[in-house]
Fold UDP-N-acetylenolpyruvoylglucosamine reductase.
Amino acid sequence: MSLEVLLKNIDGIELEINKDLTKFSTMRLKCFGDLITIKTLEGLKGVLKTLNENSVDYRILGMGANQLLPESSAVPFIKLSLEFDKSYLNEVRDLYTLPASVTLSILSSHAVRNGLKGWESFTGIPATLGGAVFMNAGTNLGEIGPLIKRVFVVNKQGEEKIYEMDESSFSYRKQNFLAEGDFIYQVEMNHFGVDPLISKQIKDYLELRNRTQPLREWTCGCVFKNSKEKRTCLAGKFIDIMGLKGLTLNGMRISPKHANFMENTDSCSHKDVVALINIIKEELLLQYGVDFETEVKL
Ligand SMILES: NC(=O)C1=CN([C@@H]2O[C@H](COP(=O)(O)OP(=O)(O)OC[C@H]3O[C@@H](n4cnc5c(N)ncnc54)[C@H](OP(=O)(O)O)[C@@H]3O)[C@@H](O)[C@H]2O)C=CC1
Ligand SMILES: C=C(O[C@H]1[C@H](O)[C@@H](CO)O[C@H](OP(=O)(O)OP(=O)(O)OC[C@H]2O[C@@H](n3ccc(=O)[nH]c3=O)[C@H](O)[C@@H]2O)[C@@H]1NC(C)=O)C(=O)O
């Protein structure tokens, strides 16, 4: 049965067939696919339940900052777009209840205005809150995990579920509590008090990132994770030392600014990124015997 027929009686959603999704990832990879935009919780429950009952697989799309979209997707993408009244952020709260589709940049602006301690950890990360929780977004100022209190999901059967966070809920670039198919729709997070110095720290850090990372280019953030065993084993540093900065293959370039970033300088697609990743992996193995895991979802 077609997606149009399957989803036709579900309110609070929009379905677009074979849509050009090139602008739906920060790397701007050429991509066409079916897109289901979810505007209400009931819509999300209805869609997940229906897809599950009909054995239709799907992919969740946040800002597309950490996944390489395929040139043509066999499965539909689901994107959350829940209503959010920004006046909710007009005051400092002890606990924030936020839709997962809100972007970290909106939250960062609130942190700058109010000096929220702990919120500096996600400065400059292009992500939705849901995507950030999914992989414990972080910078060298910290990680988002310790701020998260409860995570509200809809599971693949279309049922609501709430996870309470504890010390084991997050690790480096990873959450450890979601079940396969869980879709985060809401997050409760706090902060560690108010400190006027945080605003300056965030601004300084943004300036540093701007100097050291290609923020204006089309990238997916860091391509590789740093080594799990040895946090001093840094992918960017290794790729740089091998002299690979600037190497370009079919329009996909290793950033001259930061070697763990790849820049789409043309109209590249999935295969172009994977080809360059494979070259880097081979060189890293050959020259240093290290095998860096990709951070970006292929
Ligand atoms: N530190 C940095 O400077 C940077 C960090 N990043 C990281 O990349 C991530 C990008 O976020 P974003 O663009 O929003 O996400 P993406 O669209 O890149 O999705 C990334 C993954 O998160 C999953 N996901 C996204 N939203 C949800 C949700 N609501 N519920 C459950 N799973 C979800 C997706 O699941 P599925 O597998 O089911 O499709 C996908 O595997 C952040 O975690 C961020 O930390 C990115 C760039 C720079
Ligand atoms: C971009 C991401 O996150 C980034 C995050 O923005 C930055 C800054 O907080 O710290 C991590 O990068 P990173 O480990 O490469 O940190 P950086 O501070 O940029 O560099 C570390 C060290 O490597 C050196 N370095 C880096 C890049 C390069 O081309 N050459 C080089 O020598 C730097 O000089 C520095 O001494 C995160 N990456 C990972 C995989 O953990 C992402 O996750 O997508």
Summary: The chain has three domains: 3-80, 86-198, 214-288.
